[in-house]
Write a structure and sequence with these properties.
The two termini are 15 Å apart. By secondary structure, this protein is α/β, with parallel strands linked by helices. It has one domain: Aldolase class I (TIM Barrel, Alpha-Beta Barrel). The longest helix is centred in the first third of the chain and has 11 residues, at 32-42. It is 36% helix and 28% strand. An eight-stranded parallel β-barrel has the order 1-4-5-6-7-10-11-12, surrounded by six helices.
Length: 251
């Protein structure tokens, strides 16, 4: 059985780690390099680094920061934010990232997924999707949750996987930062329509929420930010709790 992964997320704005609620009200959460080092030592399975304003501000993800983090940690990490071309993705991979995450650019140019999968392999391409539940339907949003599309979450994820995405990072905007639990029903449906690994994101507030999402269905990883950044949950204790509850994790 594949072990479930615990993934801290570093949302980066102007070189600092930040965290908000429902994608708004951002507050400082620390230096990303120091946090990355801490999580690597604490037993995180992977890291995700997202430059959350890169797309909005039309600037590239901070390559220097990626290099710094890569030199300080020994676990895989994914980088996203403002990646619009395969060439930009290549620079990040060459700078030390193990995977790249694309979101807005993939919606605007779906063939980018196929191009990147062909160039780097599907295992390097993470399709990140931010969605909100509106009028009984999960709707995809772009640019850090600022722009609403007409895309249905499930239709888009299915198409993304068909084009070559090797992993899905789904964030429920309704649950983000609320600490009330993950969007279990949506995640269960995603796991039924695609066979690639799924990372659950948005809403974790306590250890039980990790157990709930892993127990509920075929979810491969759970991502969280503030509960880790502010030491509300310690990764070693979380993993021991999950193992004692019968969830296969890497200790």
């Amino acid at each position: 059985m594949l072990k479930k992964r615990i993934i801290p997320c570093l949302d980066i704005k102007e070189g600092r780690t930040v965290k908000g609620v429902n994608f708004e009200g951002l507050r400082d959460a620390g230096d990303p390099v120091e946090l990355a080092k801490y999580y690597s030592k604490e037993g995180a399975d992977e890291l995700v680094l997202l430059d959350i304003t890169a797309t909005q501000e039309k600037r590239k993800t901070m390559v220097d920061l990626v290099r710094q983090i890569a030199s300080e940690i020994n676990i895989p990490f994914t980088v996203g934010g403002g990646i619009n071309t395969a060439e930009e993705a290549l620079v990040l991979l060459q700078s030390g990232a193990d995977k790249v995450s694309i979101n807005s650019a993939a919606v605007r140019n779906p063939e980018l997924i196929r191009l990147m999968a062909d160039k780097f392999g599907s295992q390097c391409v993470v399709l990140a999707v931010d969605a909100k539940f509106i009028d009984s339907e999960w709707i995809v949003f772009l640019s850090g949750g600022r722009i609403q599309t007409e895309l249905n979450l499930f239709d888009w994820v299915k198409k993304g996987v068909e084009l070559g995405a090797g992993e899905i990072l789904f964030t429920s905007m309704d649950h983000d930062g609320t600490k009330e639990g993950f969007a279990i029903e949506a995640l269960e449906k995603l796991s039924q329509i695609v066979s690639v690994p799924i990372i659950a994101s948005g809403g974790c507030g306590k250890k039980e929420h990790f157990f709930d999402v892993f127990e509920s269905g075929n979810i491969d990883a759970a991502l969280a930010a503030s509960v880790f950044h502010f030491r509300e949950i310690e990764i070693p204790q979380l993993k021991k709790y999950l193992r004692d509850k019968g969830i296969s994790v890497r200790i």
